[in-house]
Amino acid sequence: MLMTDMISAPWEASLTQAEHSLIFYFLALTGSALLFGLARTWLTRGEVGARYRTAVVARSGIMIVATLSYVFMVLAFTSGYDHVGSLWVPNSEAIMTIAPRYVEWSIAVPLLSIELLSVATLSGVSARRTRLAAVAGAFLMIFTGFLGAVVIGDGRSVGSLIIWGAISTVFWIITAVILIRAIRHSLPQLTPEAAALLKTATIFLMSGWAVYPLAYLIQILFAGGLWTTSIHIILCTADIVVKLGFCGLIHRIAKLRTAEDVRAGVDIHTEAIWISSVKQSDAGIPTVVYLPEGETIHQRRPKPSDSNATASSSARQWTDDFPPTDL
């Protein structure tokens, strides 16, 4: 295959009934899963402290944009293919089954970077600079891939796909290095449990991002309805795993670190924090919920007997100043 060769774009392939049904199934399944993720994000938004609220905002943005994207793609898929004989033949709208993914990724991937950094230990100027660099790298990674896969050469130029794919890979490496350095800096400052979860979440995200180039390579190397179906299945599966799995891990880290801050007396939370049915901290203000070193749960004190209760000095003074009168 030469750089000057022209190939068929994925949205130009005719589909069999089975391929058409599979693509619709995975598009609808992924959209429904993301809608569930959006609902869960909204319902659990109060489980983390203000210090990690950025993770909740980023997660909400990811779920909203991704859900809307899949709704649009399902609608585009139903109108983008015409049933001719035994095949589903693409029309001019079929490109909208692929292109919206890049629009969604242009927002979601930078937000994934922000979400990971929000539970790291960077702060102040260092946090802002790292976040800006990661967001810029993540956006350029997606945008340059979009230029090669859809825009330049209409997704049919082998040369454009390879060149812009290579440029996108450079930005992928830059973004990954920025995030990994920030996480490696944070790990020694975290508790063993939080550090282990953060390390797992980072590996999870990096592994998920490695799947997407596979679909990009399929567009270069193969053509036809079977491979178009494979691209959709790979991308839908990756979106479910990364957006729900990774975001779930980050939420758990944010809850755990919130509980640790409350126990240390440096933050407050309006309710007790539980993770997997294990109580991590009580609710209250720092002076109330502060625990001695080595303790994780308050020992409840017995309620004093009402028969032994005595009035406070202020109450006795009020009684002396305003004696009761008979009515």
Summarize the structure.
The protein has 327 residues and is mainly α.
Please describe what this structure looks like.
- The protein is mostly helical and 327 residues long.
- The chain has a single domain (10-264), classed as Rhodopsin 7-helix transmembrane proteins (Rhopdopsin 7-helix transmembrane proteins).
- The protein is built from nine helices and five strands.
- The strands form two sheets. The protein has a three-stranded antiparallel β-sheet with strand order 1-3-2.
- This is Rhodopsin.
- GO terms for molecular function: photoreceptor activity.
How is the secondary structure organized here?
Layout (H helix, E strand, L loop, with lengths): L14 E2 H27 L9 H28 E4 L2 E4 L8 H20 L5 H28 L6 H29 L5 H30 L3 H40 L8 E3 L2 E4 L4 H4 L23 H9 L6
Helix pairs in contact: 1-2, 1-7, 2-3, 2-7, 3-4, 4-5, 5-6, 6-7
